[in-house]
Amino acid sequence: MLVGGLVLLLASAVAFVIAARAGLLDGVPGVPTGLLDAATGLDLGSPVVIDAALGALVLLGIVLLAVRASRRSSERPSGGEEDGFLVRLYTPMLRWALRNRPAVLVLALVFFVGGLAAIPFLPVSFFPAGEERIAQARVELPPGAGLQQTDEAVRPFEEFLGDDPDVRNYQISIAGEDNFDPNSPIRSANQAQAFINIEEEADPQEAIRRISDEGREIFGEEAFRAEILQNGPPQGELQAIITGGTEGEREEAAGIVSDEISGINSVINVRSDVSGGTPEIVAEVDPERSAQVGLSPQTVSGALATLLGGGAPGGAPGAPGGPPSVGGDPVSVSLPSEAIDSVDEVRALPLAPGLAVGDVAEVTQVEAPAAKSRVDGEPAVTVSARIVSQDTQTVSAQAQTALAELNLPDDVEVSVGGENEDIEESFRNLFYSIIVALALVFILLVVFFGSILIPLVILLAVPLTTAGAFGALLLTNTALSLPSLLGILLLIGIVVSNAILLVDFAIKARSRHEDGDEAVVEAGRARLRPILMTALATIFALLPLALGLAGGGSGLISASLAITVIGGLATSTFLTLLVVPVGYSLLESARSRRKKRRYA
User: Fold this and answer.
1) Which H or E element spans position 268?
2) For residue 315, how far is the Cα from the chain centroid?
3) What does the pLDDT look like over 25-54, one tens digit per residue?
4) What is the Cβ-side half-sphere exposure of residue 369, based on CA atoms within 13 angstroms?
């Protein structure tokens, strides 16, 4: 009945598409116009339609096989379920395990230690790299560059994007509004921003690495940045915090640290607080020279404020040093901007008849820092970078080792932070969470089973997950991250529930058998199918996510979580069916020996 319904449904869909494209359904009442238009405009040769058709055929084949297997199973005589292939395969394995209990426990220990031994070989990151395929590139030319100059400078980079096979399309904006930078929502005329859409078949990390190399070659290391836009938590951040010393020593150390970090592989977009600043003109009034002409430094600064910006801020209108007023209303009086666009013109500004600013002050042009930072109340300079490698912890460790060997100015200290600190803190907290979860599960089992030893037998299944979980991450070259550790938490619940099924049935079957091993065999044979169904259902449910068919996921739900759970279930389910029965058998043997000694 089910197969006939599926065949009828597929045949009806095909017939509807053919009739719609032939125009036979035009004007027929009851046929939705939108559905008719969709069927008429359907491209039968598109990859999406072909994949959908193949998927429907595969699904139909799976259903046919399942129905055929179900009919064969229903045609077996009573009691034939115990003679199924899986039961016939599992029963001798279980009996062998019960006869060789020390060997099974040693095998379980080897799997547990082997899984832990795989951890040092895993790349480590806070969150796995997402599958987002939109990159952002920023270009900043020297201050003073106009709109036309910036447009001409960006042309070679635009030609590179047009020729790159991994770039599907792109958009470049010069000046204007910037919705992706809350600190600077308006781009100046010397700034450009590119949004790049990467092809589905391309590797986003490799594409962004190639785009970064080309951009730095065209515009220079300090003027270009490129990165993949992240929808989830920030990923791959590296920070070096420089503290101590004078401002000049910190700036010198920032340059040394930036050069050292730039030489590390898999690190791009190296910037510091002192780079990317804006030019400013500073006038330092000489008190002696100003006193000789009868002016105080405050008078000179007030005159400059009036000439450049309409008066000193905060003063009352008409008051000394405040903005001038007419009839009590404040007015703004200042020079045109084109009259003071150089240091020499500022020096020549008049303060009094025959007296200029340059006569009483030193006027110089300086580079103002892009930002100022403080750490624990002390001035600091931050050098930041982006790690494009999957193993962010190793890159952070390389940076920490390299910076520790630098010859920095006296009294200057540098510390490495960023994502590495997040990894250590989150992994430590999650490790504590796993310990608490195991403790709560143990207490709950003690309450329900009324025993301390039986929960310990059930929890034997938990260490068996390490071999498959960490082994799967190693085989797929997937980073050990926060989602993968959350997969360990998920595994604990699944394997414990499977072990409970097995042990609970063995306890109930114990009253029907004089030998405890026979009760264990009966429990294993009876609970084999439910345990396998639970594990296989979870594995196949997570398989699309692990294979990247769901886009790799984002945030906490990612492929690394699915890979961890699938690998852990693959090994723990098999080992649970052998190790947990052996543990319960040992417990029953110990109880039997105590009873014999008691009644001897």
Assistant:
1) strand 267-272
2) 51
3) 555 555 555 555 555 555 554 444 544 555
4) 17
